[in-house]
Design a protein that fits this description.
Helices cover about 35% and strands about 25% of the residues. By secondary structure, the protein is of the alpha/beta class. Helix 14 crosses helix 15. It is globular and about 60 Å long. The protein starts with a strand and ends with a helix.
Length: about 425
Protein backbone atom coordinates (compact mmCIF):
# COMPACT_ATOMS: atom_id res chain seq x y z
CA UNK A 1 0.00 0.00 0.00
CA UNK A 2 1.30 3.48 -0.94
CA UNK A 3 0.88 6.35 1.50
CA UNK A 4 1.07 10.11 1.00
CA UNK A 5 1.20 12.77 3.70
CA UNK A 6 -0.57 16.13 3.50
CA UNK A 7 0.46 18.67 6.15
CA UNK A 8 -2.25 21.32 6.21
CA UNK A 9 -1.53 24.30 8.46
CA UNK A 10 -4.01 27.06 9.16
CA UNK A 11 -3.95 30.10 11.39
CA UNK A 12 -5.37 28.20 14.37
CA UNK A 13 -4.24 24.59 13.89
CA UNK A 14 -2.32 22.14 11.75
CA UNK A 15 -3.04 18.55 10.74
CA UNK A 16 -1.04 15.67 9.31
CA UNK A 17 -3.33 13.60 7.10
CA UNK A 18 -2.24 10.31 5.54
CA UNK A 19 -3.80 9.47 2.22
CA UNK A 20 -4.07 6.24 0.27
CA UNK A 21 -5.86 5.43 -2.95
CA UNK A 22 -8.32 2.58 -2.33
CA UNK A 23 -10.88 1.28 -4.84
CA UNK A 24 -11.05 4.51 -6.78
CA UNK A 25 -11.26 6.78 -3.75
CA UNK A 26 -8.79 8.80 -1.69
CA UNK A 27 -8.96 7.52 1.88
CA UNK A 28 -7.75 10.04 4.46
CA UNK A 29 -6.70 9.48 8.07
CA UNK A 30 -5.70 12.25 10.46
CA UNK A 31 -2.70 11.01 12.42
CA UNK A 32 -1.50 14.17 14.14
CA UNK A 33 -2.90 17.57 15.10
CA UNK A 34 -1.33 20.59 16.72
CA UNK A 35 -2.42 24.06 17.73
CA UNK A 36 -1.20 27.16 15.96
CA UNK A 37 -1.66 30.80 16.80
CA UNK A 38 -0.23 34.27 16.77
CA UNK A 39 2.11 35.33 19.56
CA UNK A 40 2.46 38.87 20.83
CA UNK A 41 6.19 39.54 21.15
CA UNK A 42 6.91 43.02 22.47
CA UNK A 43 3.78 44.38 20.81
CA UNK A 44 4.31 42.63 17.45
CA UNK A 45 2.04 39.77 16.33
CA UNK A 46 4.31 36.93 15.16
CA UNK A 47 4.43 33.26 14.18
CA UNK A 48 6.57 30.86 16.21
CA UNK A 49 8.42 29.23 13.31
CA UNK A 50 10.57 27.05 15.57
CA UNK A 51 7.42 25.62 17.13
CA UNK A 52 5.83 25.09 13.70
CA UNK A 53 8.94 23.30 12.43
CA UNK A 54 8.98 20.93 15.40
CA UNK A 55 5.25 20.27 15.06
CA UNK A 56 5.73 19.39 11.38
CA UNK A 57 8.57 17.01 12.26
CA UNK A 58 6.68 15.40 15.15
CA UNK A 59 3.71 14.66 12.91
CA UNK A 60 5.95 13.09 10.27
CA UNK A 61 7.61 11.01 12.98
CA UNK A 62 4.18 9.65 13.88
CA UNK A 63 4.03 8.01 10.43
CA UNK A 64 7.03 5.89 11.39
CA UNK A 65 5.55 5.05 14.77
CA UNK A 66 2.38 3.63 13.20
CA UNK A 67 4.31 1.91 10.41
CA UNK A 68 2.84 3.87 7.49
CA UNK A 69 5.72 5.51 5.63
CA UNK A 70 4.65 8.06 3.00
CA UNK A 71 6.19 8.17 -0.46
CA UNK A 72 5.83 11.94 -0.57
CA UNK A 73 5.07 14.81 1.80
CA UNK A 74 3.56 18.19 0.87
CA UNK A 75 2.84 21.24 3.02
CA UNK A 76 0.18 23.89 2.47
CA UNK A 77 -0.49 26.98 4.59
CA UNK A 78 -2.25 30.34 4.51
CA UNK A 79 -0.87 32.96 2.13
CA UNK A 80 1.08 36.25 2.27
CA UNK A 81 3.36 35.49 5.29
CA UNK A 82 7.05 34.66 4.90
CA UNK A 83 10.40 34.12 6.59
CA UNK A 84 13.58 36.00 5.73
CA UNK A 85 16.97 34.30 6.09
CA UNK A 86 20.48 35.76 6.07
CA UNK A 87 23.54 34.65 4.09
CA UNK A 88 24.19 31.87 6.62
CA UNK A 89 20.58 30.68 6.16
CA UNK A 90 19.65 31.81 9.66
CA UNK A 91 16.15 33.12 10.26
CA UNK A 92 15.82 36.89 10.61
CA UNK A 93 13.15 36.98 13.27
CA UNK A 94 10.47 37.75 14.14
CA UNK A 95 8.31 36.19 11.42
CA UNK A 96 5.55 38.80 11.56
CA UNK A 97 1.92 37.79 11.09
CA UNK A 98 -0.33 39.40 8.51
CA UNK A 99 -2.63 40.40 11.37
CA UNK A 100 -0.01 42.75 12.83
CA UNK A 101 -0.78 46.46 12.56
CA UNK A 102 2.63 47.43 11.12
CA UNK A 103 1.22 47.84 7.60
CA UNK A 104 -1.30 50.54 8.55
CA UNK A 105 -0.78 53.41 6.12
CA UNK A 106 1.84 51.49 4.13
CA UNK A 107 -0.35 50.90 1.02
CA UNK A 108 -0.62 54.67 0.59
CA UNK A 109 3.19 54.96 0.73
CA UNK A 110 3.59 52.23 -1.88
CA UNK A 111 1.04 54.02 -4.09
CA UNK A 112 3.60 56.82 -4.50
CA UNK A 113 6.03 54.36 -6.05
CA UNK A 114 3.54 52.38 -8.11
CA UNK A 115 -0.10 53.33 -8.54
CA UNK A 116 -2.89 51.02 -7.44
CA UNK A 117 -4.05 50.70 -11.03
CA UNK A 118 -0.63 49.74 -12.38
CA UNK A 119 0.02 47.31 -9.53
CA UNK A 120 -3.28 45.54 -10.18
CA UNK A 121 -2.73 45.53 -13.94
CA UNK A 122 0.57 43.71 -13.42
CA UNK A 123 -0.23 41.38 -10.50
CA UNK A 124 -4.03 41.10 -10.44
CA UNK A 125 -4.12 40.87 -6.64
CA UNK A 126 -6.76 42.52 -4.49
CA UNK A 127 -5.66 45.38 -2.26
CA UNK A 128 -5.38 44.31 1.39
CA UNK A 129 -3.28 45.99 4.08
CA UNK A 130 -1.63 42.67 4.94
CA UNK A 131 -0.42 41.77 1.44
CA UNK A 132 3.19 40.58 1.26
CA UNK A 133 4.19 43.59 -0.82
CA UNK A 134 3.26 45.91 2.05
CA UNK A 135 4.86 43.72 4.69
CA UNK A 136 8.12 43.64 2.73
CA UNK A 137 8.03 47.41 2.30
CA UNK A 138 7.92 47.62 6.11
CA UNK A 139 11.10 45.51 6.14
CA UNK A 140 12.68 47.90 3.64
CA UNK A 141 11.86 50.88 5.84
CA UNK A 142 13.12 49.19 9.02
CA UNK A 143 16.33 47.94 7.36
CA UNK A 144 15.44 44.32 8.09
CA UNK A 145 15.60 43.51 4.38
CA UNK A 146 19.27 44.60 4.21
CA UNK A 147 20.40 41.46 6.05
CA UNK A 148 18.21 39.13 3.98
CA UNK A 149 19.58 36.80 1.32
CA UNK A 150 16.54 34.53 1.01
CA UNK A 151 12.76 34.97 1.04
CA UNK A 152 10.60 31.90 1.61
CA UNK A 153 6.84 31.90 1.97
CA UNK A 154 5.66 29.93 4.99
CA UNK A 155 5.11 26.51 3.30
CA UNK A 156 8.34 26.95 1.31
CA UNK A 157 10.20 27.67 4.53
CA UNK A 158 8.84 24.56 6.26
CA UNK A 159 9.68 22.46 3.18
CA UNK A 160 13.21 23.88 3.33
CA UNK A 161 13.48 22.88 7.00
CA UNK A 162 12.72 19.28 5.97
CA UNK A 163 15.07 19.15 2.98
CA UNK A 164 17.64 21.91 3.13
CA UNK A 165 16.44 22.94 -0.35
CA UNK A 166 15.08 26.43 -1.04
CA UNK A 167 12.47 26.75 -3.77
CA UNK A 168 9.48 28.99 -4.49
CA UNK A 169 6.06 27.64 -5.50
CA UNK A 170 3.62 29.30 -7.89
CA UNK A 171 0.32 29.30 -5.97
CA UNK A 172 1.72 30.67 -2.71
CA UNK A 173 3.94 33.18 -4.55
CA UNK A 174 0.90 34.51 -6.38
CA UNK A 175 -0.52 35.80 -3.08
CA UNK A 176 2.35 38.28 -2.64
CA UNK A 177 1.25 40.96 -5.15
CA UNK A 178 4.79 40.70 -6.52
CA UNK A 179 4.14 38.05 -9.18
CA UNK A 180 3.30 39.13 -12.71
CA UNK A 181 -0.09 37.55 -13.37
CA UNK A 182 0.35 37.01 -17.10
CA UNK A 183 4.00 35.88 -17.02
CA UNK A 184 3.54 33.81 -13.81
CA UNK A 185 6.93 34.99 -12.62
CA UNK A 186 8.33 37.61 -10.25
CA UNK A 187 7.78 41.16 -11.47
CA UNK A 188 11.30 42.46 -10.95
CA UNK A 189 10.37 45.99 -12.01
CA UNK A 190 7.93 46.30 -9.09
CA UNK A 191 10.43 44.71 -6.71
CA UNK A 192 13.17 47.12 -7.80
CA UNK A 193 10.93 50.18 -7.48
CA UNK A 194 10.15 49.28 -3.88
CA UNK A 195 13.82 48.90 -2.97
CA UNK A 196 13.51 45.17 -2.25
CA UNK A 197 16.60 43.07 -3.00
CA UNK A 198 15.93 41.09 -6.18
CA UNK A 199 18.42 38.40 -5.19
CA UNK A 200 16.21 37.07 -2.35
CA UNK A 201 13.61 35.68 -4.78
CA UNK A 202 13.85 32.07 -6.01
CA UNK A 203 12.87 30.53 -9.34
CA UNK A 204 9.17 29.70 -9.41
CA UNK A 205 8.20 26.00 -9.36
CA UNK A 206 4.75 24.78 -10.34
CA UNK A 207 2.49 22.52 -8.23
CA UNK A 208 3.64 18.96 -8.70
CA UNK A 209 7.35 19.86 -8.55
CA UNK A 210 9.81 18.00 -6.36
CA UNK A 211 11.52 20.00 -3.60
CA UNK A 212 13.92 17.29 -2.45
CA UNK A 213 14.52 14.31 -0.20
CA UNK A 214 14.63 14.61 3.58
CA UNK A 215 17.88 16.04 4.88
CA UNK A 216 20.10 13.82 7.02
CA UNK A 217 18.96 15.72 10.11
CA UNK A 218 15.29 15.15 9.24
CA UNK A 219 15.84 11.46 8.49
CA UNK A 220 17.55 10.99 11.82
CA UNK A 221 14.71 12.70 13.70
CA UNK A 222 11.72 11.00 12.00
CA UNK A 223 13.37 7.61 11.37
CA UNK A 224 12.84 7.29 7.60
CA UNK A 225 13.30 9.05 4.26
CA UNK A 226 10.69 10.54 1.93
CA UNK A 227 10.43 13.07 -0.87
CA UNK A 228 9.01 16.53 -0.23
CA UNK A 229 6.96 17.91 -3.12
CA UNK A 230 4.93 21.00 -3.86
CA UNK A 231 1.27 20.24 -3.99
CA UNK A 232 -0.45 23.61 -4.19
CA UNK A 233 1.42 25.26 -1.31
CA UNK A 234 -1.38 27.77 -0.80
CA UNK A 235 -4.20 26.13 1.14
CA UNK A 236 -6.93 27.73 -0.97
CA UNK A 237 -5.34 26.44 -4.17
CA UNK A 238 -5.32 22.94 -2.68
CA UNK A 239 -8.95 23.31 -1.58
CA UNK A 240 -10.08 24.44 -5.03
CA UNK A 241 -8.20 21.49 -6.59
CA UNK A 242 -10.60 19.26 -4.63
CA UNK A 243 -13.77 21.13 -5.60
CA UNK A 244 -16.55 19.48 -7.57
CA UNK A 245 -16.90 22.50 -9.84
CA UNK A 246 -19.69 22.22 -12.37
CA UNK A 247 -19.83 24.37 -15.48
CA UNK A 248 -20.56 27.96 -14.39
CA UNK A 249 -19.83 26.95 -10.82
CA UNK A 250 -18.53 29.13 -7.98
CA UNK A 251 -16.62 27.87 -4.96
CA UNK A 252 -16.56 29.01 -1.35
CA UNK A 253 -13.57 27.66 0.57
CA UNK A 254 -15.02 28.14 4.03
CA UNK A 255 -12.52 28.24 6.87
CA UNK A 256 -10.94 30.97 8.98
CA UNK A 257 -11.30 32.97 5.77
CA UNK A 258 -14.01 32.53 3.17
CA UNK A 259 -12.44 32.49 -0.30
CA UNK A 260 -15.19 33.06 -2.83
CA UNK A 261 -14.64 32.84 -6.56
CA UNK A 262 -14.44 30.97 -9.86
CA UNK A 263 -11.63 29.22 -11.73
CA UNK A 264 -10.38 30.70 -15.01
CA UNK A 265 -7.72 29.89 -17.58
CA UNK A 266 -6.75 33.57 -17.82
CA UNK A 267 -6.32 36.48 -15.39
CA UNK A 268 -9.09 39.10 -15.27
CA UNK A 269 -7.24 42.42 -15.08
CA UNK A 270 -10.00 44.77 -16.18
CA UNK A 271 -10.87 48.08 -14.54
CA UNK A 272 -14.08 46.48 -13.30
CA UNK A 273 -12.12 43.74 -11.53
CA UNK A 274 -9.75 46.32 -10.06
CA UNK A 275 -12.49 48.55 -8.66
CA UNK A 276 -14.33 45.51 -7.28
CA UNK A 277 -11.05 44.44 -5.61
CA UNK A 278 -10.85 40.87 -6.91
CA UNK A 279 -7.71 38.74 -6.82
CA UNK A 280 -6.26 36.51 -9.53
CA UNK A 281 -4.35 33.90 -7.53
CA UNK A 282 -2.51 30.95 -9.04
CA UNK A 283 -4.10 27.51 -9.29
CA UNK A 284 -3.13 24.08 -10.57
CA UNK A 285 -2.59 23.44 -14.29
CA UNK A 286 -1.89 27.12 -15.01
CA UNK A 287 -5.33 28.25 -13.85
CA UNK A 288 -6.32 31.39 -11.98
CA UNK A 289 -8.61 31.66 -9.01
CA UNK A 290 -10.64 34.81 -9.54
CA UNK A 291 -11.80 35.49 -6.00
CA UNK A 292 -12.36 37.68 -3.00
CA UNK A 293 -11.22 37.07 0.58
CA UNK A 294 -13.91 37.50 3.22
CA UNK A 295 -13.35 37.08 6.94
CA UNK A 296 -15.24 33.85 7.51
CA UNK A 297 -15.18 31.45 10.44
CA UNK A 298 -12.67 33.80 12.08
CA UNK A 299 -15.68 35.79 13.25
CA UNK A 300 -17.26 32.75 14.95
CA UNK A 301 -13.90 31.53 16.26
CA UNK A 302 -13.19 34.88 17.88
CA UNK A 303 -16.68 35.18 19.39
CA UNK A 304 -16.35 31.70 20.87
CA UNK A 305 -12.92 32.60 22.28
CA UNK A 306 -14.40 35.74 23.87
CA UNK A 307 -16.94 33.47 25.56
CA UNK A 308 -14.13 31.26 26.94
CA UNK A 309 -15.40 28.47 24.65
CA UNK A 310 -18.49 28.16 26.84
CA UNK A 311 -20.55 27.13 23.80
CA UNK A 312 -19.85 24.71 20.96
CA UNK A 313 -20.20 25.96 17.40
CA UNK A 314 -23.42 23.94 17.07
CA UNK A 315 -24.80 25.60 20.20
CA UNK A 316 -23.90 29.02 18.79
CA UNK A 317 -25.67 28.08 15.56
CA UNK A 318 -28.84 27.14 17.46
CA UNK A 319 -28.70 30.45 19.35
CA UNK A 320 -28.54 32.31 16.04
CA UNK A 321 -31.48 30.38 14.56
CA UNK A 322 -33.69 31.59 17.41
CA UNK A 323 -32.90 35.24 16.61
CA UNK A 324 -35.04 37.43 14.36
CA UNK A 325 -32.28 40.02 13.95
CA UNK A 326 -30.98 40.15 10.36
CA UNK A 327 -29.14 43.47 10.08
CA UNK A 328 -25.81 42.97 8.29
CA UNK A 329 -22.32 44.50 8.34
CA UNK A 330 -19.24 44.27 6.10
CA UNK A 331 -17.30 41.14 7.15
CA UNK A 332 -14.05 42.74 5.99
CA UNK A 333 -14.42 45.81 8.17
CA UNK A 334 -10.87 46.56 9.45
CA UNK A 335 -12.22 46.61 13.01
CA UNK A 336 -12.77 42.85 12.75
CA UNK A 337 -9.24 41.88 11.68
CA UNK A 338 -7.75 41.41 15.16
CA UNK A 339 -9.98 42.95 17.84
CA UNK A 340 -9.47 42.25 21.52
CA UNK A 341 -13.19 41.46 21.73
CA UNK A 342 -15.00 40.34 18.57
CA UNK A 343 -18.46 40.61 20.14
CA UNK A 344 -17.92 44.28 20.93
CA UNK A 345 -16.37 44.85 17.49
CA UNK A 346 -19.44 43.42 15.72
CA UNK A 347 -21.72 45.56 17.89
CA UNK A 348 -19.66 48.59 16.92
CA UNK A 349 -19.97 47.75 13.22
CA UNK A 350 -23.74 47.48 13.67
CA UNK A 351 -23.90 50.57 15.91
CA UNK A 352 -25.84 48.44 18.40
CA UNK A 353 -23.94 48.51 21.74
CA UNK A 354 -26.67 46.66 23.67
CA UNK A 355 -27.33 43.90 21.13
CA UNK A 356 -27.98 40.47 22.73
CA UNK A 357 -25.49 37.67 21.99
CA UNK A 358 -27.92 35.60 19.91
CA UNK A 359 -28.53 38.62 17.65
CA UNK A 360 -24.79 39.28 17.31
CA UNK A 361 -24.23 35.71 16.13
CA UNK A 362 -27.21 35.78 13.77
CA UNK A 363 -25.95 39.02 12.27
CA UNK A 364 -22.63 37.30 11.51
CA UNK A 365 -24.49 34.51 9.70
CA UNK A 366 -26.57 36.88 7.60
CA UNK A 367 -23.62 39.16 6.88
CA UNK A 368 -21.53 36.27 5.51
CA UNK A 369 -24.35 34.84 3.38
CA UNK A 370 -25.22 38.30 2.07
CA UNK A 371 -21.58 38.98 1.15
CA UNK A 372 -21.40 35.67 -0.75
CA UNK A 373 -24.44 36.72 -2.79
CA UNK A 374 -22.90 40.13 -3.53
CA UNK A 375 -19.69 38.50 -4.76
CA UNK A 376 -21.59 36.09 -7.02
CA UNK A 377 -23.36 39.04 -8.65
CA UNK A 378 -20.07 40.92 -9.05
CA UNK A 379 -18.42 37.92 -10.73
CA UNK A 380 -21.30 37.57 -13.16
CA UNK A 381 -21.16 41.27 -14.03
CA UNK A 382 -17.36 41.36 -14.50
CA UNK A 383 -16.91 38.07 -16.39
CA UNK A 384 -20.23 37.88 -18.21
CA UNK A 385 -20.53 34.26 -17.04
CA UNK A 386 -23.70 33.09 -15.29
CA UNK A 387 -23.20 31.27 -11.96
CA UNK A 388 -25.65 28.40 -11.51
CA UNK A 389 -24.14 26.42 -8.66
CA UNK A 390 -22.00 27.02 -5.58
CA UNK A 391 -19.68 24.37 -4.11
CA UNK A 392 -18.95 25.06 -0.42
CA UNK A 393 -15.91 23.17 0.87
CA UNK A 394 -13.79 23.17 4.01
CA UNK A 395 -14.70 23.06 7.68
CA UNK A 396 -17.32 25.76 7.30
CA UNK A 397 -19.30 23.53 4.92
CA UNK A 398 -20.48 21.62 8.01
CA UNK A 399 -22.46 24.66 9.15
CA UNK A 400 -25.93 23.78 7.88
CA UNK A 401 -27.44 27.13 8.86
CA UNK A 402 -24.86 29.11 6.90
CA UNK A 403 -25.32 26.80 3.92
CA UNK A 404 -29.09 27.32 4.10
CA UNK A 405 -28.75 31.11 4.29
CA UNK A 406 -26.24 31.10 1.43
CA UNK A 407 -28.78 29.30 -0.73
CA UNK A 408 -31.48 31.81 0.21
CA UNK A 409 -29.35 34.90 -0.36
CA UNK A 410 -27.75 33.72 -3.62
CA UNK A 411 -30.68 31.83 -5.13
CA UNK A 412 -28.25 29.20 -6.45
CA UNK A 413 -27.93 25.46 -6.01
CA UNK A 414 -25.64 24.62 -3.10
CA UNK A 415 -23.29 21.61 -3.07
CA UNK A 416 -21.28 20.97 0.10
CA UNK A 417 -18.04 19.11 0.69
CA UNK A 418 -15.51 17.77 0.84
CA UNK A 419 -15.02 19.04 4.38
CA UNK A 420 -11.29 18.24 4.26
CA UNK A 421 -10.94 19.88 0.86
CA UNK A 422 -7.48 21.34 1.44
CA UNK A 423 -5.98 18.01 2.46
CA UNK A 424 -7.90 16.27 -0.34
CA UNK A 425 -6.51 18.63 -3.00
CA UNK A 426 -3.02 18.37 -1.52
CA UNK A 427 -3.12 14.56 -1.63
CA UNK A 428 -4.70 14.50 -5.07
CA UNK A 429 -1.73 16.34 -6.60
CA UNK A 430 0.78 14.16 -4.73
CA UNK A 431 -0.88 11.01 -6.06
CA UNK A 432 -0.88 12.39 -9.60
CA UNK A 433 2.86 12.99 -9.32
CA UNK A 434 3.36 9.30 -8.51
CA UNK A 435 0.78 8.12 -11.08
CA UNK A 436 -1.41 6.65 -8.35
CA UNK A 437 -4.53 8.27 -9.86
Amino acid sequence: MSYFLAIDIGASSGRHILGEYVCGEIKMTEIYRFENGIKDIDGTLCWDVQYLTKAVLDGIKECGRIGKIPKTVAIDTWGVDYVLLDKEEKEILPAVSYRDARTEGIPNEVDKLISQEELYGRTGIQRQNYNTIYQLFCDVKSGKIDKAEHLLMMPEYLSYKLTGVMKSEYTISSTTSLLNAEKRDWDMEIIERLGIKKSIFKTISVPGSVVGKFSEETKEYVGFDATVVFAPAHDTASAVAACNLKEHGMYISSGTWSLVGVQNTYPVLSDEAFYANFANEGGVNNTYRFLKNIMGMWLFQSIRKNLDKKYTYDEMMEMAKKSKYTKTFAPNDPRLLAPSNMIDAVKECLNEPDLPLCDVINSVYHSLASSYADIACEIEKITGEKINCINIVGGGSKDTYLNELTGKYTGREIITGPVEATAMGNLKIQMKIKDEI
